[in-house]
Amino acid sequence: MTSTPTVPAVPLPARHSAGCPFGPPPAYTEAAASAPLTRGDLPGGDSCWLATGYAEVRTILSDRRFSADIRHPSFPLLVAGDREQITATPSFLNLDDPEHARLRRMVTGDFLVKRVQAMRPDIQRIVDEALDTMTDGRTEADLVADFALPVPSLVICLLLGVPYEDHEFFQGVGRTLLSNASTSEQRLAARDEMLEYLEGLATRKRAEPRDDIISRLAVRDDLTPREVASTGILLLIAGHETTANMISLSTALLLDRPEQIARLADPAALPGAVEELLRHLTIVHTGVARVALEDVELGGTTVRAGEGVIAMLSTANRDEEVFGGADRLPVDELDLDRDARRHLAFGFGVHQCLGQPLARAELQIALATLFRRLPGLRLTVPRDELAFRTESFIYGMRSLPVTW
């Protein structure tokens, strides 16, 4: 086995292609075609491994020999800047067990399938009210601003106990934190601003707790205010940004493939259709970072202890050996009848997305209701004029002009 790269290193994060806005950046696809493990150049000047194959990505995300602890001195950072400051306040997503398990366990119950099922009437009400507002006296709208963002923002605010009237603040902070175009100073200032906001909210809720996540965390004696705020940042930003971008991207993709929209009207087919959308779009296009704690043989290569790895969910989800088949469209095509249940859009292993039951429910309800209520939905601009958020770690759309 060897740690010698056989193909040119990929500059990370790679840029998207205007000609194929719904797929991974071409550099990742080309790397996947050459080998399951290649090299990548990080913004700070360091290099790391780039894992693109399905089997390799699953191993990295589930093998305890790969660490998620962002404080590790060799952890691969996809942003340049002061490492000590960037890694100063990690959420449980960027910690290993037992720290990760201790913090995650405190909020797991709020995202269990049973709890989310009980929330479906509230989600349906939020979706219907958003569509009522969007269509009231109008025949055109920006689906991002008027539907895709408000729906998950309202849902996560309801769950966390964050006042929705502050949504412009936390959405703006989220855009700064998730943008690879932000400077280190901008990102740190935004993080500190959000931590201060959530610590203040937690202090108020400790005095007058209610039935929400922040209240339940705030009254615990085994959590510091900073730990409550760090967990709150992760849940608040991830809880609305990911789902909002999936709603808008899914809508744009389906409007480009109208023959498949009917599958959303079939309650039996709807869950599978959403899994295929998650697989096909895989909006975390920048991948998931880990660092090897010991030598690991992976994809015919030895990853040495202390070497960083970026696990590319998007290319793993287009692995022909896993998602292909003679009776299916190619993996780079949308097929709402495909069995996509093994996709890695939510990650894999102990760090996989905590909120995936909620995201699935929101996507199923939002997309089915949108196309049922607005069967004449269509774009008002050519597809090549759509504006995508190519600078964000969570891929999405700036706007989606539609009419009905």
Summarize the structure.
The protein is an alpha+beta fold and 404 residues long.
Break the fold down into its secondary structure elements and pairings.
Elements: E1 10-11, H1 26-34, E2 37-41, E3 47-51, H2 54-62, E4 66-67, H3 83-86, H4 99-108, H5 113-135, E5 140-142, H6 143-148, H7 150-160, H8 167-178, H9 184-207, H10 213-218, H11 225-255, H12 270-281, E6 288-292, E7 296-298, E8 301-303, E9 308-311, H13 313-316, H14 320-323, H15 356-373, E10 378-379, E11 401-403
Parallel strand pairs: 1-2, 3-9
Antiparallel strand pairs: 2-3, 4-6, 5-11, 6-9, 7-8, 10-11
Helix pairs in contact: 5-7, 5-15, 7-11, 8-9, 9-11, 11-15, 12-15
Keywords:
single chain; 404 residues; alpha+beta; Cytochrome p450; three-stranded antiparallel beta sheet; 15 helices; 11 strands; 9% strand; disordered N terminus
Report on this structure.
The protein has 404 residues and is α+β, with helices and mostly antiparallel strands. It has one domain: Orthogonal Bundle (Cytochrome p450). Helices cover 45% and strands 9% of the residues. It has 15 helices and 11 strands. Helix 5 (113-135) crosses helix 7 (150-160), helix 7 runs antiparallel to helix 11 and helix 12 packs across helix 15. Residues 1-5 have low confidence and may be disordered.
